[in-house]
Amino acid sequence: MTQQKTVSATDQSRARLSERSARMPASPIRKLAPYATAAKERGITIYGLNIGQPDVPTPPEFLAAVRSFDQPVLAYGHSQGQADLLAGFSRYYKQVGLDIPPEQIQVTTGGSEAILFALMAVCNPGDEVIVFEPYYTNYTGFAITAGVKLVPLATDPQTGYHLPPAKAIEAKITNRTKAIFICSPNNPTGTVLTREEINTIVGLAGKHNLFVLSDEVYREFCYEGSHTSIMEFPEIAEGAILLDSISKRYSACGARIGCLVSRNPEIMDAVLRMGQARLCSPTIEQIAAARAMDLGKDYYRELTAEYRKRRDTVIEHFNKIPGCSCRKPSGAFYFMGGFPVDDIEDFCRWLLTDFSYENQTVMMAPGPGFYATPGIGNNEARIAYVLETDKLIRAMTALGHGLERYKTSH
Amino acid sequence: MTQQKTVSATDQSRARLSERSARMPASPIRKLAPYATAAKERGITIYGLNIGQPDVPTPPEFLAAVRSFDQPVLAYGHSQGQADLLAGFSRYYKQVGLDIPPEQIQVTTGGSEAILFALMAVCNPGDEVIVFEPYYTNYTGFAITAGVKLVPLATDPQTGYHLPPAKAIEAKITNRTKAIFICSPNNPTGTVLTREEINTIVGLAGKHNLFVLSDEVYREFCYEGSHTSIMEFPEIAEGAILLDSISKRYSACGARIGCLVSRNPEIMDAVLRMGQARLCSPTIEQIAAARAMDLGKDYYRELTAEYRKRRDTVIEHFNKIPGCSCRKPSGAFYFMGGFPVDDIEDFCRWLLTDFSYENQTVMMAPGPGFYATPGIGNNEARIAYVLETDKLIRAMTALGHGLERYKTSH
């Protein structure tokens, strides 16, 4: 429940912040940044495996559009998104086999805003959304903003973080449950849900009149098998909400362009009104993103090949570290690595504050930040393989030495 | 109260949207857009006085920075904002007489996000914030998102929309009140609050332990007297939150760059965590905005002179229309015009659907959208004087003919 105990203003010696301010978590991905900055100032090279910031170049089509922006006034755009970009998204979806006309698309300021809009659209304060742990940590921040209770259900590293059986999911459904939130390919586990798994979710949603929020920003990052979209299931046409972003596929995280897709006109009307409140997404990046939408299959094939190579390299070297283990994930560019430590937060911080190997160290995102259930994830860290393979090998070498030294000193 | 009656999921024939989705208002500034589009398709020239979209060129320094963006990867920026931009904002504030170091600044995605972050930081769901009607309509959307109850207190056209007496404001304070929200120079009225008025607000906030949220995005648009910032009052240092944006002063509405300023480290810590959840504001525009921060006094002097001329022109011609009246406002680039009609929504729509004069018409933002109290504002419209003076004169001529014809036919 998000109902808060309220502090009476007259009880205060001075104006007090909200309780939800206190509950808003620091990003587990970003909170170690000050230690990294200090380490860099000591001259240490840091392999940044903490954040999903790809190093591959942003497509020239995108950057050329930015550089050729020639309007005299950088004006507001449309609240739904620029017509060119809506048409571009529609063409892009056609290319991946989805028939989505522009009127079913709301441009958002990053995938982040798509998450917030979706939660706002389907939930009243206090409503519940089922998520599978570990999950993308920022869902928590948006749930706090929207006053939504995320109800976590743990997945198991031994099954490769695949979904629990339908009965276990069904047991979490209450009369406050409004949606099930899935993410495939998954951040942070790299797991790609099978068509059968998504079919199970669709079945449960239909049976219990729930929405399904589907984060598919890593659609192209699929190394085995293929990606299944929530939009492929006509039986949940009105209840499916697709959350998307160009950040990863175009290596354009700083553009802040994403979208929300739904075939339900009521949802589109609601999110448009939310869009009107914040006026528009950044205009220049919308123009540029529209130009990138026609990148062909070759672009994605090369992208996937590069990340598959990185995945194979990093997993091979990670599993060589004594005590470390991870099943090879099939997608995205993350994995949750298991470590022989009891306090991964301490280990991740120690790597930045007290350790270097040949003047190098590694920055990772501690596991507990990806769980809502307290006490889980203390022996896991999320590793983003967003560097070239030779750097990944050096990073794993440094990590191995770090773990060895940490274990002898703790 | 924002507490909602909840619909049990099992009662539904299908998944239902949230009740707050229904409450999220369509923008009164933007909702007439489809009628305008249709009128344009009929070949009619529309003077767009509905939206605060300046027509003055974006400064060349800003655009040159966009065009020379030369990084190979459009990467995430820092959640607080890029160091260059934080330093730039700090220099800008020094130029306007405020000593604000970078650590007291949080870059936001437009002034819009600054409003949301401020409401989230100080209010729990159900808390109250006092606002003065008419007010910038989008406050309502963010209040719904944050579950905050805006408590409106009407200002009077006869006093030039200046604040009511302290006693009237104090009468609105309850034990759920967390903040008073002011905006000067004001959108939509153009009123510039006097130092004495702001001093009164600061006194009330101190006495009742309230925060003050101060929207100062029109700081430079002051035609008589001078602007007073909430940051000039040391007695409310911990309770003052300044909301700002580059959109208007740099004619860069599509950049989506604003900031939130506070001298309270707890507030800065809370909004940074909100910033981490949405990762960052657009990177390219942050770089470009940093370059614009050193525009000197000449830039602002010319800007102010241009808008002062427009204000004088539009007010003179507006007040010539029989039955129309407005006291000349001192700032921003809006005024609330009084009309001899009973249903301004109908009149504004009719101007687009049924009227043209010499193939021209006028688009305005109907008054009721700027009031929370039902039934007020039906004879007012917000007019944004964001066009050149000759266009403003033609717009007022068309408006006068429109009003005459409307009154004979209704």
Can you describe what's shown?
The structure is a homodimer of 410-residue chains. Chain A has 410 residues and is α/β, with parallel strands linked by helices. The first copy, chain A, folds into 2 domains: 24-57 and 298-409, Aspartate Aminotransferase, domain 1 (Alpha-Beta Complex); 60-292, 3-Layer(aba) Sandwich (Aspartate Aminotransferase, domain 2), CATH 3.40.640.10. Chain A is 37% helix and 14% strand. Chain A is built from 13 helices and 12 strands. In chain A, the strands form 3 sheets. In chain A, strands 2-8-7-6-5-3-4 form a 7-stranded mixed sheet, sandwiched between helices. In chain A, helix 3 packs antiparallel against helix 10. The first copy, chain A, is globular. The two termini of chain A are 39 Å apart. Mean pLDDT of chain A is 94; it is low at 1-13. Chains A and B meet through helix 1, helix 3, helix 5, helix 6 and strand 5 of A and helix 1, helix 3, helix 5, helix 6 and strand 5 of B.
- The CATH class of the largest domain in chain A: Alpha Beta
N-to-C CA distance of chain A: 39 Å
How many domains of chain A, as an integer? 2
CATH superfamily of the largest domain in chain A: Type I PLP-dependent aspartate aminotransferase-like (Major domain)
The neighbouring-strand order within the major sheet of chain A is 2-8-7-6-5-3-4
CATH fold assignment of the largest domain in chain A? Aspartate Aminotransferase, domain 2
> Which series of helices and strands of chain A comes N to C?
HHEHHEHEHEHEHEEEHHHEHEEEH
Low-confidence stretches of chain A: 1-13
Basic shape of chain A: globular
Mean pLDDT of chain A: 94
Q: Would you count the extended β strands of chain A for me?
A: 12
Total helices of chain A: the number is 13
**From the helix content, strand content and strand pairing of chain A, which structural class follows?**
alpha/beta
